[in-house]
Design a protein that fits this description.
With about 130 residues, this protein is mostly helical. About 35% of the residues lie in helices and about 5% in strands.
Length: about 130
């Protein structure tokens, strides 16, 4: 650093010192996304059509009551899209914005047997 005749730090040196501090501070700050993750990429996803109570409760803002409401809604009708979760009582636009990066609604594979409730190997009447 150079000092002027009056003993003060030169303006360009003050600027470089401030810039260096800001760069170092931004590199060391822990407020950003986890290492290797981008803000658009969630670290984990929950499938609304297969998740259990505990998995749903890991979502931000979802506690036991809301998780139960999601499970009850899903029991009546599987989710066709993740945004459909807004129809569940207690989940509105604000909560949807929080959980949106973490939820998907992938279809559940259905049993291909004609009568899924009958045991494997059972005779099933087929229409002619």
């Amino acid at each position: 650093m150079s000092k002027s005749a009056t003993g003060q730090i030169a303006p360009q040196d003050r600027f470089l010192g401030t810039l260096g501090f800001l760069v170092l501070w931004s590199l060391l700050s822990a407020g950003g996304p986890a290492q290797g993750a981008s803000p658009e990429e969630p670290l984990w996803l929950v499938n609304l059509n297969t998740a259990g109570q505990e998995e749903l409760e890991r979502l931000p803002g979802i506690g036991p009551a809301r998780a139960k409401a999601i499970l009850e809604y899903r029991a009546r009708k599987p989710f066709r899209s993740a945004e459909e979760v807004i129809r569940v009582k207690g989940i509105g636009p604000k909560l949807w914005k929080k959980i949106r990066p973490h939820v998907v609604a992938q279809p559940v594979a259905r049993d291909s047997r004609p009568n899924a409730s009958s045991p494997p190997g059972a005779k099933v009447a087929r229409p002619r």
